[in-house]
Amino acid sequence: MNPAAVRKKLFPAKAGALGQENRAVDHDSNVAGIFDSRNSPMNGVPARRVRMPAGVTPEVAATREMLGAEFYRHMALPAIDQVTEFGNLLVGSINALLNSSVRHRFSFNLKLCSACIVNSQQASTLAFVMSEILINALQYAHPTDERIAITIACSPDQDGKTTIDICDDGVGLPRDFEEWLDAKGIMLIRFRLQKVGACMDLGSDDLGLSYRIVLPPPVSQNAIFRPPRLNSSQANIERA
Q: pTM value?
């Protein structure tokens, strides 16, 4: 199944408001507006073809640092010299984000299978990949500062590989988008994934942007499995 078909399955309809079951809990304060996509792109663009300004605002730089630190703390560090469940690592990161300054910008729908196993090198790479994908969604998913719906699903293949789908409900990529020229961040994600033998397909349409990541079987190590616990009032999670 291609990324566009996966996204349509995960987001059956694009609506102005999210369904209650996929919606993060509302809060009294509002931090919307700290990301200005007009002035703070994720990726620099060559001067000869400026589609977005090349500068990054201090707010975006600080948010990228925060996202990277949280994913590293909850995904990379717990998996050092071990293999463990991707869902276990991911849920720790999501819980941290739902208690951070960006909690009003995201709602998460997690569809996780307990058989999705990653080793320490894969977990460290995914920590970087997840933080870059979320900062990209914050900057570009919606022209306005409305909440972004992120669906993350993982499923194991019969050959031991793990497939991870990450989709947002944003506006997708521009019609004249060229990855090699317009998205150095996405190319860096590809490079980091290739270093652990993984590959990624990028899909985009009017339902948003999707990333399909396929990881090779993890190197056999001492497995540690701890069932993750997610605050059900803040995000929706399904376990297979």
A: 0.70
